Amino acid sequence: MFVRGAEQRKARMVCFGCPVRTECLGEALDNKIEFGVWGGMTERERRALLRRRPDVRNWRELLEAARQNYADFEEYQVS
């Protein structure tokens, strides 16, 4: 979503309920997309994350693995 200022908060809220949020964020990070809200993160947040983790070669894989680990943990907690 390509919005600025206060509209970014609204766009982020849409992202939080989206079933493809992880894939979207991974796409933006892997391709260094500069503008808009992707996967619930603003361009500023994505730039900061990329600077903090220059070692990551495939964000989509990393994010999907983290999501799966969380799901496995949640399943374990319920058992």
Automatic annotation (TrEMBL):
What residue stretches are annotated with the 4Fe-4S Wbl-type domain? 1-48
Give one GO term, molecular function aspect: protein-disulfide reductase [NAD(P)H] activity
**Origin: domain of life:** Bacteria
Is 4Fe-4S among this UniProt entry's keywords? Answer: yes
**GO biological process entries:** cell redox homeostasis; negative regulation of DNA-templated transcription
Q: What is its main location?
A: cytoplasm
Cofactor requirement: [4Fe-4S] cluster
Q: Which UniProt keywords apply?
A: 4Fe-4S, Disulfide bond, DNA-binding, Iron, Iron-sulfur, Metal-binding, Transcription, Transcription regulation
Keyword DNA-binding annotated: yes
Recorded hits in InterPro entries, A to Z, give: 4FE4S_WBL, Whib
Indicate where this protein resides in the cell.
Cytoplasm
Q: Name one GO cellular component term.
A: cytoplasm
Q: Which family does it belong to?
A: Belongs to the WhiB family.
UniProt name for this protein: Transcriptional regulator
Supply the source organism for this entry: Saccharopolyspora erythraea (strain ATCC 11635 / DSM 40517 / JCM 4748 / NBRC 13426 / NCIMB 8594 / NRRL 2338)
Gene behind this protein: wblA
